[in-house]
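Let's practice the habit of predicting before peeking. Look at the sequence and jot down your guess about where helices and strands might fall. Then scroll down.
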Amino acid sequence: MEHTLASRAHCTGIGVHTGKPVRLELHPAAAGTGILFVRSDLGRDVRFPARPEWVVDTRLATTLGNQEHRLSTVEHLLAALRGLGVDNCTVEVSGSELPIMDGSSAPFVYLIEQAGLRAQRRNRRSLVIRRPLEVRDGNRSVRVQPSRDFKVSMGIDFTHPAIGQQFIASLAITPETFAREIAPARTFGFLRDYQQLQALGLAQGGTLANAIVLDDTRVLNREGLRFRDEFVRHKIVDLIGDLALLGLPVRGHFKAMRSGHTLHQALVAEIRANPSCWTVEVDAPGVEVEEGAVAVPLLQPASRL
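Done guessing? Here is the structure:
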């Protein structure tokens, strides 16, 4: 069945780019609502559904918006909601970006766990990949192929001596594996880039408390890393959060190499543009997905879901 929160939950933090305080509130939502963001500082009419047609920028984070207003850095919360199996939730934010917290999804996992989950009287549907799809940009790529589960393989390759090449192969994403192995991984950046962004009026809230920061040779955070391969694990956080914009859980194996928000959204667009490569099926306990199974086609446009 679909799930929403059992109760409300809230937290406060700062926006990584504005440096301004922001309050985040999670509210239960009716079955079939999906994830809906509300700019509470502008009134409840300023809403951004977590859907790809509302994505307006992917350069530094995934940003939703319209012609007048924006809401950025939604991916870490979206990853936590999708990773823990929350289908319906209204998210109220008192600013133009979500709080960065410690730079990972773990604080949002804690928030959701404190609120609890409640099953709803509506069958959950999943988008089931039937044929492979892939997008590329030079040596960067993201591919999805059929799988009975939601799996991720992720690889990164940095010339920095503290990162280098890191790869995670075929990790099945469940609420347990997400909360334990993926959610705590923090975002990361290079000191030289932070200095350039701050000179442009961005990254005003960026500190060692909410990101892994590296100089030319080492990690500057005194506490070190949470995982030996924390960098590639955080890339999985970003991928899961970006895929959440499809609006449904996905059964497929995603294989990414040197990817980022822009390429993730390119794959989302490729999936939406090729309905012959997937089906939407009602989840049922103990029922395995088989090639050629009877399926419910995804309604077009996707905003009707």
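How did you do? The chain has a mean pLDDT of 91.
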